[in-house]
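FAQ: What does the model actually see?

It sees only this:
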Amino acid sequence: MPVPIIVNKFGRLTGWNSITFNFFGRDIEGILEFEYSDSVEWENVYAGGKMPIGEGEGNYAAEASLTVLAEEWRAMQDGIPPGARMQDALGAIICAYEYGTKVYKDVVNNVRVMGQGVGPKQGDKSISVKLELKVSHVNWNV
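And it is asked to produce this:
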């Protein structure tokens, strides 16, 4: 019986262990989740007839959130000036994906912490902190 050939089109896939994060000039190791996205509003413009005659472009919007271990959160706080709050700090998050020998970097710009929350419960083996972020824009693959 012939051995089936498995086609491995992409090779080793990028996973969580292939990503590094840098925020406020330091690498973040205690990160559990990082979400970021962007969008632009587009709509059809109508005039005479039932078909659109063009399209209109609206505003650009970017969103992000970050979940880290409580120990990482404290280390991040140590990185800002004494007496300042996390909400006062402004920076960028660099997310680098290693794929084979190439590194792809996304930069989430003008990151400001809008809110932070902790919700430990009985039985937890670690405590995480979710940070709601305000960002200006995302530069993809820079």
